[in-house]
Amino acid sequence: MIEVDVTRSFTARPRRRIAGLAATVAAAGLLLSACSSDDTASGGSSEAAEDFQAVSVQLSWLKNQQFAGEYLAVEDGLYTDAGFPEVTLTAGGSSATSAEAAVASGQAFVGLSSPLITAPAIQSGAELKIVGATYQLNPFALVSAASAPIEGPDDLAGKTIAVSDSNTLVWNAFLAANELDEADVTTVPLSDTSMLTTGQVDGFIGYTTTGAAALAEAGFEATEFLLADNGLPMVGEVLVTSQQAIDERPEEVKAFLLATAEGWRAALDDPERAVDLTVNTYGKDQQYDADAIALSFDRQATLIETDETAANGLLTISDELQEGTIASLGFAGVEIAADELFDLSLLDEVYAENPDLLS
Predict the structure, then answer these.
(1) pTM of the entire structure?
(2) Which site among 68, 225, 307, 325 is 20 to 30 Å from 48 CA-CA?
(3) pLDDT value at position 95?
């Protein structure tokens, strides 16, 4: 049984339909595994419940600012408006079920993940597709001291860089993308950021949401550059669903994407509320520092909103970004075609049917 960390439930209520939403959708079985009685929505209007089923979303990590858009979609009733009587946000973590496994097994309708994980799962036979991406730029960054900055790949020769086991694949892909020989750079295991602050290493691979800005806030002047701007233009925090859902439940997928896009618009427009919900509601058990989460949210916003999302909309993935992601995966030794990994057709329909999303 998957342990579900549910912090909020909500009551189904009359809702606004998205354009083109079918009046009824055939009920396809979706297993929702839960261990807490808190995940059951209370009574109220049954109109929304008659359209779609309650669904679960498998998050990629513990409940932090990465999922603020989903929090607001729940809190503001956007998922209810879209037709779901209940949406359960299931926390991830090092010991949690992966998004790919949860979606493939039917335990989750949608999962949040990384192309570096989703693509190999598809190659192994999982019938999954990426249908959107929260991050237009992946969050990986190389962090170094401001007093001895590493400003780009050309500065790496002879340096010692700390890399965690979980980031080894992306590090090796970055080296390959920039034609750097592994022998030119000394790579050591990353324990924590003190390896940089105490001078044990010249830099480390981390996330921009908790990278140089966080160190500077703590009193250590640091700088960083994004791997996305230096050979790895790969999307991040991708939304994954099953091919079966795309084929048999397209209106539900569209409804979920619409509500999630609206949730992220609300979160980006009101970062203080997004941080408050993260710290005091959804991530309350993690005892987050509000200032640290606010800093991470600000950095995260630069990954989510770009010139491309201004033109195409939140969650979208342009043809260029799809190609960049495929190329980045190739540097990681993962060979897959764009049409095997992505299906943006339903998100395209969402924006065609709801042009106000771009206003």
Answers:
(1) 0.86
(2) 68
(3) 87
What residue ranges of the chain have pLDDT lower than 70? Answer: 1-50
Q: Helix (H, G, I), strand (E, B), or coil: what is residue 268?
A: helix
Query: Which CATH number is 79's domain given?
Result: 3.40.190.10
Question: Cα separation of 79 and 230, whole Å?
Answer: 37
Query: 84-114: per-residue pLDDT in tens?
Result: 999 999 999 988 999 999 999 999 999 999 9
Question: What pLDDT, on the 0 to 100 scale, is given for residue 13?
Answer: 34
Structural domain ending residue among the three candidates 183, 213, 229: 229
Q: Quick one: which of 258, 238, 354 has its CA closest to 52?
A: 258
Beta pairing partners, 238: 113, 133
Query: For residues 297 and 294, what is the distance between their CA atoms, to the nearest angstrom?
Result: 5
Whether residue 239 is found in the same domain as residue 129: yes
Coil, strand or helix at 192: coil
- The whole domain housing 148 covers 140-229
Separation CA 62–CA 57 (nearest Å): 13
Residues 86, 62, single domain; the answer is yes
**Ordered strands of the 55-58 beta sheet:** 87-90, 55-58, 110-113, 236-242, 128-135
The Cα 148–Cα 9 span in angstroms is 49
